[in-house]
Write a structure and sequence with these properties.
Elements: H1 2-9, H2 23-33, E1 43-47, H3 50-65, H4 70-77, E2 89-95, H5 101-118, E3 122-126, H6 128-134, H7 137-142, E4 150-158
Antiparallel strand pairs: 1-2, 2-4, 3-4
Helix pairs in contact: 1-5, 2-5, 3-4, 3-6
The structure holds flavin mononucleotide.
Flavin mononucleotide binds near residues 11, 128 and 167.
C-alpha cells in the first residue's frame, strides 16, 4: 500500500530550497535507481557542483529562448522561469545510442524518482537541459560522460520550497480494453 501512496504523492517539483540532499538519501536513491528493470548499459552522473548547475541552467535557458520552438520560447520567457528551478542536484542518465539505452535510462530515472518521493525529496524529470547539452560540447566535456554514451534524460532532486513554477498536469485518457 505504501508504494501506491508514494506513486500518488509524486509530482514534478519546480522550486527548490537552497539545501543539499543528505548523502544517506542520495546513496539510497542511487541504489534504488539500479533496481529498475534493465536491458543494457547506462551511466548515472550526479551533478552537485553549484557552478556547473548554474552553467547548465543558463545554457538551457538560452537554448530554449533561441530554439525556434514555440513551447520552449514561451516557457523560457515567463518571468521567474529557470529550467533547473534552483535544484541542488541534477542526475543525468546516459546510454549508448544503439540498443535499449533510452528505455533503460527512463526505467532507472522513474524508479529513482519514486524512491526520492518516498524519502520526502522533490524531483522533476527533465529533458530540456539534455537537449541543450547536446548542442554544447564545452559543458558536456566537463561531465565526464563515458565515450559512446549520450545523455538521455535528467532528474532534478532536492527539497521543495513550496513556490514552484506553475505547470498544469495534462489530463490523460489513454486506456483501451480489448
Ligand atoms: C520525457 C519527459 C520530459 C520532461 N521534461 C521536462 C522539462 O524539461 N522540464 C520540466 O519542468 N518538466 C519536464 N517534464 C515533466 C512533465 O512536465 C510532467 O511530468 C508532467 O507535466 C506531469 O506532471 P507531474 O509530473 O507533476 O505529474 C518531463 C517529463 C517527461 C516524461
Amino acid at each position: 500500500m505504501e508504494t501506491l501512496e508514494t506513486i500518488k504523492k509524486r509530482e514534478s517539483i519546480r522550486g527548490y530550497e537552497n539545501k543539499e540532499i543528505e548523502k544517506e538519501k542520495l546513496d539510497i536513491i542511487l541504489e534504488m535507481s539500479n533496481k529498475a528493470p534493465n536491458a543494457g548499459p547506462f551511466q548515472i552522473t550526479v551533478i552537485q557542483d553549484r557552478d556547473i548547475l548554474k552553467e547548465l541552467n543558463d545554457i538551457t535557458k538560452n537554448f530554449m529562448l533561441n530554439s525556434g520552438n514555440e513551447f520552449f520560447e514561451k516557457r523560457a520567457s515567463t518571468p521567474g522561469y529557470e529550467p533547473l528551478y534552483g535544484a541542488p542536484c541534477l542526475i543525468i542518465f546516459s546510454a549508448p545510442e544503439e540498443g535499449f539505452g533510452q528505455i533503460n535510462c527512463a526505467c532507472s530515472a522513474t524508479t529513482m524518482i519514486l524512491a526520492a518521493t518516498d524519502l520526502n525529496l522533490g524531483t522533476c524529470y527533465v529533458v530540456s537541459p539534455i537537449i541543450a547539452l547536446s548542442a554544447d560540447n564545452d559543458i558536456t566535456s566537463k561531465l565526464n560522460i563515458s565515450d559512446g554514451f549520450t545523455p538521455v534524460c535528467g532528474v532534478l532532486v532536492g527539497y521543495p520550497n513550496g513556490e514552484g513554477f506553475p505547470v498544469e498536469r495534462p489530463q490523460i485518457d489513454n486506456i483501451n480494453y480489448i
